[in-house]
Every structure is written in structure tokens, then in C-alpha cells.
Write a structure and sequence with these properties.
GIY-YIG endonuclease, 3-stranded antiparallel beta sheet
Length: 97
Amino acid sequence: MKIYYVYIVKCSDNSYYTGFTNDLERRINEHNDGFNPESYTYTRKPVELVFYHEFNDATQAISFEKQIKGWSRKKKEAIINDNWDLLPMLSKNRMKD
């Protein structure tokens, strides 16, 4: 069975990048090797893996990646710190902004 990963890396400028892959180690190395000057992480190396979640279904992984990409920094940091229970509160607070 193939495994897919949704991951977050912290870039050298302290921003976060969220991605999807089926080979986590290779993908993180690609970010740090910087082959594509057009990519977000190219000028923000090195990157550090701060979160990943495994999926058995590529469609679910892609859906979760898209969801995270729409999240605030605080929500991303909540899952990075394994504080999933904070997500509903952070969603409510964002609606008040």
C-alpha cells in the first residue's frame, strides 16, 4: 500500500510551506537542494520539517493539504505543536477578525 504525506516545513524566514508527497525524505531534500528557482522555498532555504501526517489515500491527502494551505499561521502552529483541540477555537476567533 502506498503512503502519502502532507507536510509543513518552516523556512529560514520563519514562514511555513505546506506540501504533499509520496516520499517525504526525498521531497524535503528537494526543497533544501533548491532545483526550481520559481518555487516558494527556493530563496527560503534551509527548510526544516516541522509536521507531517500520513494518508493511505492520495485524494484525502490532497484535500487536507489544500485545507491547511487556507489556514492561519496560528492554526498551522496548533497542529505543529499537536494541539488539534485548539482548531475549533482558532477558527471561531478568525471569524471575528
